[in-house]
Specification:
It is globular, with a radius of gyration of 24 Å. Strands 2-1-3-13-4 form a five-stranded mixed β-sheet, sandwiched between helices. A five-stranded mixed β-sheet has the order 10-7-11-6-12. It has a two-stranded antiparallel sheet with strand order 5-14. The N terminus is likely disordered. 37% of the residues lie in helices and 22% in strands. The chain folds into two domains: 123 residues, D-Maltodextrin-Binding Protein, domain 2 (3-Layer(aba) Sandwich); 97 residues, D-Maltodextrin-Binding Protein, domain 2 (3-Layer(aba) Sandwich), CATH 3.40.190.10. The protein is an alpha/beta fold.
Amino acid sequence: MKKVTILLTLLLSLLVLAGCGGNEKKTSGTTNNTIPNVLKIGVTAGPHAEIMDNVKKLAAKQGLKIEVVEFSDYVSPNVALFQGELFANSMQHAPYLQATLKKEPKFDLKECFKTVNFPMAVYSTKVKKGNAIPDGAIIAIPNDPSNRGRALLLLANAGLITVKDINNVTTSLADITENKHNFKFKELDAATIPRSMDDVTVAVINANYALSAGLNPTKDSILLESAKNPFVNIFVTKAQNVDSKEIAKLKAIYQSPENEKFILDHFKGTILPAWK
């Protein structure tokens, strides 16, 4: 009986130790302030991915390992970051993040530093540069709140429509107070708009998707957003990692003279550093 008791005690001890070991394994990764050995950075395909690939090369020289994870939409990178699948992401501007946090308040995501400025622009296969957009034109705009607002403010600043508040970055179709040209607006997912250009009169397209489609904002657009806009792109991570040494290193590398030169040379002035 004594031997059985001793054996049961040993078995219970082993089970407790195994349970502790299992818990330790589950808490590895980006949760509980534990930083992974390889930092997974989420980006959208195109310019953000190209810039982060360069950052990855520069970081490797300093012993910092990065894995670039590409997404085809704006929503998934923030969801993946919140769920701990990413360490950070670089694919959105500040108003988009704020709109996301308003919709999903449980997302504990924070801006770390400024990255680049992608000018939004209006493109067309039917209207030539220098010509007016015709009355009754069908205009494609992004369907997410911040980019929809950005597109409408671009048109308002050009005098094509009038809105309630020219400074409201989440301006919606309901905020249009005057549409004297009787434009019809078609709201589409931002990533699909370049492929829909033949189905509309003009299309308002984010620079990263325009460049991926072979469109140059400064050369091919019929209307370009002003350089003075609040839609500067940002680097984002979970709140618990904002002040980490890894984020400090990433900021120094991203905003380094070497990466700045890459951005200016590679994109020939169509995408600009936003930290200057």
